[in-house]
């Protein structure tokens, strides 16, 4: 990326230098995420996101270790690995408490570091920031796990503490939303999907939704409350615009739990009006969800290994690096269905 909201440029770069505490990974696959789109658009300056240009975008990375730094002991050339989108220091009190996703000194490939829209990428503090993949999970499936899927997993399993038999409404059926639909269904919940695109809603039904609402044609709050006779126990907003935040809260039953995953756009700039009186009177609980702690990865990978969740089925298209601009353009009009993954360099 040479300029924000300008077409990405293709160029040759030097082979990355291996960090002493890190590795170099040859990528097999890298997802193109809406976070990449936000950074490309120049959003999130209100969060302190000021990427230094030129920048290689990309953070949903999976591949093979090809070079190992001298301080690394537990990773080896040939290991197949997946990288979370948030690199942690492993040493601060938050990391030591098991919340590497909330590290005090985080680094983000594709934002504060050069990212994965490249054939080779260096990963610092690799023993903290990489996970070795089981043989049953190939790199294509793994590329879905480093951001959207693992965030949805953390949001449904740990933040919402979704239980079998509960009802959950997922607002926004992009990559995070469809991941949440699949995971919630695997957990035994009844899933309701909300979007403005019938094709995305059809995909949501394919991966586990039992009811859906096209919010461009009908009021999702009224429709869901009628369908559920009063509302749902859990909502997830996977989009982050004011309308979906407010509708998510309005869809809840008394003592419902709302999980906010989607970050806001340049219109909201992080500020959204909320129905505070309803939140108080109904004891609504609201929690944010950012990435996933490292300790939850074994649970996620076991569910993938057993076939209980199938993240690769959410991949809508495989693209070459030179076609990334068309993917980003499609995100501007919300055209893309499922995950777009770079598999050809």
Description:
Helix content is 28%, strand content 22%. The protein is an alpha/beta fold and 345 residues long. The two termini are 16 Å apart. Strands 1, 2, 3, 4, 5, 12 and 13 form a 7-stranded mixed sheet that branches. It has 2 domains: 156 residues, Quinone Oxidoreductase, Chain A, domain 1 (Alpha-Beta Complex), CATH 3.90.180; 140 residues, Rossmann fold, CATH 3.40.50. The model has no long low-confidence stretch (mean pLDDT 95). The chain contains 12 helices and 13 strands. It is globular, with a radius of gyration of 20 Å.
Report the biggest beta sheet as strand number plus sense, adding barrel if it closes.
7 strands, mixed
Structural class: alpha/beta
- C-alpha termini separation: 16 Å
Q: Which CATH-level-2 architecture of the largest domain? A: Alpha-Beta Complex
Question: For the CA atoms, what is the radius of gyration?
Answer: 20 Å
Order of helices and strands: EHEEHEHEHHEHEHEHEHEHEHEHE
Helix content: 25-40%
Q: What amount of the residues lies in strands?
A: 15-25%
Number of contiguous helices: 12
Counting DSSP E segments of at least 2 residues, the number of strands comes to: 13
Write down the domain tally: 2
Give the low-confidence spans.
Answer: none
Determine and state the CATH class of the largest domain. Alpha Beta
Described by the principal axes of the CA atoms, the overall outline is globular
User: What is the CATH topology of the largest domain?
Assistant: Quinone Oxidoreductase, Chain A, domain 1
**Which whole number gives the mean pLDDT?**
95
- What name goes with the CATH superfamily of the largest domain? Medium-chain alcohol dehydrogenases, catalytic domain
